Amino acid sequence: MQLIRKNIDLILIIIAGFVLRISIAVTHSYTNDELSAINRLRYDNFSDLIDQGVKLGDMHPAGVQVFEKIWSSVFGTSEFALRLPFVLFGTASICMIFLLGLKWFNRQTGIYAAIFLSFLFFPVLQSELARPYSPGLLIALLTAWFYHKVLFCEVKKMSNSLLLGLCFAAGMYTHYFLFLQLIFIGISGLIFLRKDNYKLYILAAFTGVVLYLPHLGITLHHLNVGGLGWLGKQDSTFLFSYIFDVLNNSWLILIVIFAGALISVFFVRTSYEKSNRYYWICLGWFFEFI
Which of 12, 157, 204, 243 is positioned for an S-S bond with 164, CB 3.0–4.6 A? Predict the structure, then answer.
């Protein structure tokens, strides 16, 4: 009970984030992107699902398609039934981003991050679609969590190493953009290798690679047919347009966040010198991803 009282703000944020996501999920019909995935659930056996529904019929890794096949075989393909787990993935991400903010900086940072993730339109929309985006976000945050556990925690556990490897593999099975992001995250971890963590980090990387090997043939096929050819070239305003769109196209939100960042850098940062490396990690991951 005391734990609930101490975290009532976080609980309310998570509830608000869930309500926003589930309310949108049940008020509009499937998008064409979702219908495409549902159409590829018609195959009766796993071999056809992989060959026809993933390898030839799609340009995404097999993870979400296989998950939707298993889930829909039990709960059906109504909008509520099929979108519910993706709403839950998106809601769980609110909790995870709070935990990362708390661990890397302070509780206030975690709360602010959770608030923005809970109500910004871009993550809300992507969290209610039955597509790879909300599980991809959750996996990315879990990867960051176990990345911290393996590299920076004083107590070293093999279980954290194996879970980091599992996150690497899960991300690679979820979306190819996330695949690239996790490669960068993995490379960035080499900077922080020490005598007490390098074996566990190598074990995590090895685990991820081994778990992904069954999918390698599909990935090579997708690369050979040019699966990303539909992407257009970005212009010089892309970075600002992307950030502005993520922030609900709101000048007010943009100014508030920018002002908060300046205050943090020039007036607050000296109180969190031990968190300096996390500033650079977050900046590096952000700019690499976009």
Answer: 204
Residue 64 belongs to some domain of the structure: yes
Helix axis angle, 198-212 to 133-151, nearest 10°: 150
What's the distance, Cα to Cα, between the start and end of the chain in Å? Answer: 42
Q: What is the pLDDT of residue 262?
A: 77
Residue matched to tokens 């900086």: 105
Confidence check: pLDDT of 55 > 60: yes
* CA gap 113, 137 in Å, rounded: 14
Q: In total, how many domains does the chain have?
A: 1
Range of the domain at 50: 1-131
Asked, for residue 91, whether it belongs to a domain, the answer is: yes
227 pLDDT above the threshold of 70:
no
Q: What is the mean pLDDT of residues 54-69?
A: 91
- With a cut of 70, say whether residue 230 has pLDDT above it: no
Q: Note the pLDDT tens digit of each residue in 136-195.
A: 999 999 999 999 999 999 888 999 999 999 999 999 999 999 999 999 999 999 999 999
Residue 88 lies in a domain: yes
**CA–CA dist 95, 13 (Å, integer):** 9
Rounded Cα distance, 197 and 161, in Å: 10
Q: Could you tell me which residue, 155 or 77, shows the higher pLDDT? A: 77
How far is it, in rounded angstroms, from Cα 74 to Cα 205?
34
* Phi, psi angle pair for 247, to nearest 5°: -90, 35
Mean pLDDT (the chain) is 89
Q: Which residue matches tokens 């790879």?
A: 132
Task: Report how far apart, in Å, the C-alpha atoms of 38 and of each of 65, 173, 192, 255, 286 are.
Answer: 9, 18, 43, 41, 32
29 within some domain = yes
Torsion of CA 196, 162, 176, 222, to 10 degrees: 120
